[in-house]
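Escalated from tier 1: LQXTBERG holo job.
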Amino acid sequence: MTVEQQTERWVLVPAAGIGARMGREIPKQYLPLAGHPLLSHTLENILSWPGIAGIAVCVADADCWFEALPEANDPRIHRVAGGAERADSVLAGLRYLEKHAALGAEVLVHDAARPCIAVADVERLMDGEAPHGAILALPVSDTVKQVRSAGETEIERTLDRSRIWLAQTPQRAPVALLRHALEQALADGVAVTDEASALEAAGFSPRLVPGSRTNIKVTVPEDLPLAEFILATRRQS
Ligand SMILES: Nc1ccn([C@@H]2O[C@H](COP(=O)(O)OP(=O)(O)OP(=O)(O)O)[C@@H](O)[C@H]2O)c(=O)n1
Ligand SMILES: C[C@](O)(CO)[C@H](O)COP(=O)(O)O
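Tier 2 regenerated the structure:
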């Protein structure tokens, strides 16, 4: 008889951003969404995911809102100091996990700003092995244009959209592998806007798992009513 070893699984939530594109006084993760702070929705959602050992939430040093969230008292939730950029916050969280999670543990990195993630999508992402990482993503459905440089509006060419996917979170990887890859990528000056970018820079090819359009990243003011609509529709179904 073989005894299956269950890999310990943690969630890391980067929540130390300032939400500049939202243009409000307080960071977007604390703005009210359907009567509760946005981050409360995200954490409530994560707390319902199956088989999660703990959740490291990376918040800014000067954050004075986190402790007021009801979820902050949940014993599975651990507050970690974030960093200047998203990648710095994730790296701080990974270093925390290397001290507190079991050896060989896996992490699901999920943006605080994505409160509408569906549990069924997370379960699909967690299905099977992912030794080199796996991410939720969406194949693009629009025609994709490229310009010569950022800010320009003159089209240079149309890209082959059959090969283009939009990255979402959660993004899954072994903690140690991702920590090494992210540290190296930052040291090499690689632009790391998600976890997969760091793994790619290290020569790995993380797997794409089709996600859902409803897993929006709340970024600009128009996203708030959209997120409220998605959450309300889900409660009714
Ligand atoms: N130094 C940072 C910057 C971002 N994030 C987090 O990374 C996620 C995705 O980033 P984004 O949506 O870009 O959030 P902000 O950086 O806050 O937004 P903006 O770029 O508009 O300032 C968010 O949950 C955000 O809180 C973080 O933990 N640490
Ligand atoms: C990680 C991410 O949500 C995947 O789409 C995204 O890259 C975060 O980017 P941002 O520049 O921090 O908005």
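The mean pLDDT is 96.
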